[in-house]
Structures are given as C-alpha cells and as structure tokens.
Amino acid sequence: MENGLISVDRWESGSQAYFLTHLHSDHTQGLSSSWSHGPLFCSSITAKLLPIKFPRFDLSLLRILHIGTSHTLSLRSPSSSSTTTVRVTTFDSCHCPGSIMLLFRGDFGTVLYTGDFRWESNCEKAKIAKEALSAALQDDDGVDVVYLDNTYANPTYDFPSRSVAAQQAIDIISSHPEHDVIIGINTLGKEDLLLQIASVLDIMIWVWPERLQTMDLLGLPDIFTTDTTLTRVRAVPLYSFGADTLEALNLIRPTTRPTIGILPSGLPWIKKSLKKGEFLSGSFLTSRYKRSRPQSANNVEVHMDKQIGKTSPKVFHQHIYSVPYSDHSNFEELEDFIKLVKPTDLKGIVSISTCFIEPMYYFGRLCTGNQPVQVQQLHDRFKMKETDEIKGAVCPETSSEDDDVELNRSKESYKVKESGKRVATVSPETSSSEEDSVELDRNKMKALKVKLSGFRMRRFSALRRTRRGAKSSDLDYFDPDEQMGPS
DNA sequence: GCGATCAGGT
DNA sequence: CACACCTGATCGC
Q1: S-S: A189 plus which of A96, A163, A416, A465, CB 3.0-4.6 Å?
Q2: What is the pLDDT of residue A182?
Q3: Residue A225 belongs to what H/E stretch?
Q4: Is residue A116 part of a domain?
Q5: Of the candidates A323, A340, A363, which is a domain's last residue?
Q6: Which one, of A244, A169, A182, lies nearest residue A464 by Cα?
Q7: Is A263 within 7 A of strand C by CB distance?
Q8: Which of A355, A118, A120, A320 is nearest to A238 (CA)?
Q9: Interatomic distance A165 CA / C2 C1' (Å)
Q10: Is the CB of A267 under 7 A from strand C?
Q11: Does A143 have pLDDT greater than 90?
C-alpha cells in the first residue's frame, strides 16, 4: 500500500507515515537503526521491543498506537498540494506480541490491512478485537479493500486452535517422562505455547539469554530461566534446531538424557532432510490426507488422533515431533473474517514467499465487488503479479471438496509455473540417480561435520551452557563470552 | 567498519 | 512445498 501517503511494513522513502504491524524480520526488511524516512507508528509492545532489533534506532520517530484507539493524521495529498486526513484504527491481530491490524479511512476510501493475524473462535482477545472491528465498521459504507494475511487461504489448511496444538505438545512431553525436550522457536512468538506447557506441567522453561530479555520486556510470568538444571524443557532458536542437533544430543548419552524435539509449526508439509530407509516415504502435504497414523518415536505410544479431520502431530524424524501450532489464521478463520468484513476487494499480503495463494479464488464469492470473479480476471491478475515481481502465483492442489465444480475444473489454468530453480528440478536431466548420490554425499558430509565437533557442535554446546541462577537483570548481553554461536 | 543484499541453510 | 530467521559472502560507501 503505497501512494506517497502511507506505507505499511514497507520502508522505502517517499511516504509521510510508516506503519509497522509487528517485529518479525520479513516485515522489517529495509528498516534499520539508521532509518529515518518519517514517523513510525506501531503498538506499544513493538515500540518496547524495537530497540533490541535496532539498537541505535531514533526513538523520537516512534508514534504509539494503542489497541482499540483511533488517530487522525494530517498529511499532504500527493496529487494536489492540499491537506488530507487519514484516520487509522488499531486492533490486536493476535499473531505475536505487539502485532496489530490497521483500519485506514481517507480520501482513498476504507482500507483494512490485517497484517499477519490469527483470530481464533475460542480466543478471548480475538473476540474483543472482532467486536471492536465490527463496531468500527458500523459507521462506514463498507470496506473497499482488505489486505489479507493469505498464508493459509486454501481449504487444505485445516489445523486446530493454538490451545489444542499446545495440548498436543503437552501430551508429547508427558508421554516422554524420562526425556529432555527441546522446542524450536524464533525471536518473537509462541510465548503462549510455552506458558501453557509450563502451567499445565508445572515446570519452568529454559530460554537463551536474549530470549529471556524479551520475555521480561513482555512482562510474562516468571517461569522462564536460563539455568538448564531447573527444567527438562528448553526452547531453543529454530536455526539451531535440526535433525543433526537431536542426533548429536542422543549420541552422547549417557552424558545427557535422551532428548526429543518439538517443532511448533503451521506448515503441515515440513519435511525433514530425507535419508533413505527412514520413517516417511512422502511429504506431509500428501501424507496428511492418507489418514496415516502418526508413527511414534522410540516406540513410545502417543495417543493423539483426537482431532479428526484436523492436522495432528507428526513424527518426521526419529526424535522430532511436529505440532500444528500456527500464528496465522487457518482457512476457516479467514473465511469467518471475510464474512464479517465483506470487503469489495481482497488482496493478499505475502512478503517472502514463493507460494502465493490468490485470496479471491476462494473468498471472492464473499466479497461485495463484481460477482462472481471471472476466470479471465483471475488469470489476468496472476499474469500481472508475475511480471510485477511476485515470482509465482500458485493455487495448491486441494481435496475434491470444492462445491464450485466449474472453478475446480479450471483450477489447473491458475497454476503459474515458477521460473528458475523450480523449472530446473522438473527438467529430465536433473532427475537422474546421479543427483541422488550427490544428495547422499551431502548428507554424509553434514553428519561428518557434527561428529568432528565442527560448527554445529559448538553451537549445540552453546545451547547447553549453564547459567546458574541467572536473572535477566544479572546478564550482560554484550559479553562476547556469553554470545551464542561460534566466536 | 557498517549496512544492504543475496545465497544457502534449519 | 518454506511460518521466520540464522550465517556467511560480497559489495558499495
């Protein structure tokens, strides 16, 4: 959304007001400590966390948007030189701490920018946000455009609420009473998962020192620690979480306890780095429709198929479980959202993605614009997108539950093949067994690296570092001896 | 030396 | 298949 007036999660110069929906790095590309193109509007939590990511950021540029409030900005109209006003209302998007949804009203009409969001039907915060949005929309003629978090804008994405997924993680931990557990997380997000685990199992959760600082800034309960002796459950950075790490942890027994990994992820198709003769024969994208029973690691039985029709935990490595814990709305929630807002037009907001799901394909019938969406229109839109730098526009395969046979039949025509690498992988020359052996060699090399206590091993040992009794106030985050990773 | 960008990885 | 984000290389300033 750029018209010389405002930018949302975009940081090039040329706008008069900038909005940051949340602090994940795919939304801060172009933002830096030295950025100064204009005032930056964000939530109070984002403002609090921003200096961690951008230490020398000019804080006088920040403008706080409180949840549930409206602000009126006086800006210069880019076309004429007259003044124009933009009114912005802020809602909790329930994606990660500090994340917001923005409703803009101005000469350009009414535009709702969802940002990344998850509004679950069973979530109290989402319910409040929903009601606030409904109320805000009552004095409007309707929303002209919704910029939608279209990450899962396809009916194949049918995963449970976060609390249900968290319970699945808890069941996995409970069924491994003698194991250490590591959970892969990023620098922001999944805090509620950790809180639910800690509360139900009445245990503390280990986090790395920088993450503890974030937890403290967020004012979360005092259940996080940097002392490995206080708990068997550790949340570790996703980048240090892999089959290699788990294999290493389980190789050096009995020095350490046997360890399982839990990967909280909305991506149901996460595949492990495949080696021959191991558990899974196909990707999760296909296997989840086979109603296959999740295989349990180490022959420990896990009873977990309660959520019929919803994504269940998966084992994709001897020691790693995946639970469908997502901070993006699933298809059903997106559908409810569109039914509530009934926009005239709908656009997807994908940042770093090779897989763009056209939201109008499934939600077009819920919009109030020209109905129904014509095949040719969508086709044209895809073509436009592709020449317009969004690399590909793909409607993933779906089950045959679509009620609109006509659309379903012509689905193939919406697929736009991605150029470059993707094309190369389907070309006949590269599908030979020669490539397989290269792949195997690469895996061998990786395994060797671990065993030779190379880079990965050092990173792993950093994770195990004990910080006995450390509280965040005691920590010196800039002590190079305490930094994670190779020095 | 720093920031921006890209490639390659989990 | 890629939620988000890491490291490392390179390049321009």
Answers
A1: A96
A2: 94
A3: strand A224-225
A4: yes
A5: A323
A6: A182
A7: yes
A8: A320
A9: 20
A10: yes
A11: yes
Query: Is the pLDDT at A304 greater than 70, yes or no?
Result: no
Q: Say yes or no: A273 and A301 in one domain.
A: yes
Closest nucleotide to the alpha carbon of A396, via C1':
C1
Q: Could you read off the pLDDT of A415-454 as tens digits, one per residue?
A: 222 222 222 222 222 333 333 333 333 333 333 333 222 2
Spacing of A239 CA from B9 C1' in Å: 9
CA distances from A38 to A41, A60, A108, A260 (A): 10, 10, 21, 47
List of A residues 188-227 with CB within 7 A of strand C: 188-189
Question: What integer best gives the mean pLDDT of chain A?
Answer: 71
Domain of residue A473: give its range: 6-157+328-386+467-486
Same domain, A174 and A221: yes
Same domain? A148 vs A195: no
Cross-sheet strand order for the sheet of A100-106: A70-76, A83-92, A100-106, A109-113, A145-148, A345-348
Q: How far is the CA of A72 from the C1' of C9 (A)?
A: 45
Token code pair at residue A52: 């961690």
| Nearest Cα residue to A202 out of A164, A174, A227, A235 | A174
A348 and A380 part of one domain: yes
Q: Is A415 domain-assigned?
A: no
CATH label of the domain that carries residue A211: 3.40.50.12650
Last residue of a domain, one of A269, A296, A323: A323
Domain membership flag for residue A450: no
What is the C-alpha separation between A270 and A80, in angstroms, rounded?
A: 50
Dihedral sign, Cα of residue A56, residue A60, residue A61, residue A67: positive
Q: Is the CB of A238 under 7 A from strand B?
A: yes
* Spatial CB neighbours of A39, under 8 Å, sequence gap ≥ 6: A17, A18, A61, A62, A63
pLDDT of residue A267: 63
With tokens 């409703």, the residue in question is A103
User: Same domain, yes or no, for A253 and A199?
Assistant: yes
What average pLDDT does the segment A19-38 reach? 92
Confidence grade of residue A316 (pLDDT, cut at 50, 70, 90) = low
**What is the distance between the alpha carbons of residues A192 and A251, in angstroms, rounded to a whole number?**
32
Q: Which residue is nearest to nucleotide C4 (CA to C1')?
A: A186
The pLDDT assigned to A240 comes to 84
For chain A, how many structural domains are there in total? Answer: 2
Choose between A428 and A95: higher pLDDT: A95
For residue A475, the domain's CATH number is 3.60.15.10
Whether residue A44 has pLDDT greater than 60: yes
Whether residues A295 and A319 fall in one domain: yes
Q: Are residues A295 and A334 in the same domain?
A: no
